[in-house]
Prior knowledge:
Distance between the termini: 68 Å
Order of helices and strands: HHHHHHHHHHHHH
Helix content: 55-70%
Amino acid sequence: MARSTAMTGSSGGGGWSRRRTVRLGVARGAVVAALGAAGASAAQGQIPDTFTNLQHYPPDISREALVGEMRRISLSLGVRCQFCHVGSPDGVSFEGVDFASDDDPHKVTARWMLAMVDELNARVTDELPDRGGSPVEMSCKTCHRGLARPRLLSQELRLTLDLEGADGLVEAYARARNRLESGSYDFGEWEINFLAEDLEREGRPDDAIAVLEVNRAQHPESTPILASLGRLYEAGGSVDRAISIYDRFLELQPDNEAVAARLEELRGRRRP
């Protein structure tokens, strides 16, 4: 992704070397894989053999090791090197890329983030010594999981609501599900249920309903979703929809007396 030459934070590689003994075998293969569509030999020629403006990685880091680190970051964020490094005319090739430049704010952010991860790992190691034989080490992928901006699914859907309205929700949810294999998002029902609760508290019941309906499509047997939808439809005056929702609820939980009583009351409203 982007830290190649210039990337980063504390040229004293203390934190870096403690965190990571670079796996040169992996890094060696990474050189080719990281170059993407550009031919391996040509692209390698465009990556310098020596580096300037290194601020995070140790100044004597090998070319192979640094490219391996860049590949790890790229894959963690789902981006190419040109996401942080300026100069590529097409955003794909390495020709013209100025690896030492700090002109792209993404690179400055990445450098700060790498220093943050090192600091967190060091603090956990120093302050929680009894962590067992296989302590967890944080990395870029811990949060990003293939996303340049590691937003939660609920945050993605809220952003869609604010920018595109409820009509964009189904497509936004589908786009997120396309990343299911990477584990970028939590598709458990409560991630979205909590968003609906927040929207209702903010006085946005129609948006809350839209969010819950998208969630219901993936969790059709969730009684919490049905209960919330029934209540919201009822509050909004959509009695027929509320009745339909409560009917479905009772198919799943026939012994729920509270919902049965609510359903009977709603049906009484429709009687002449």
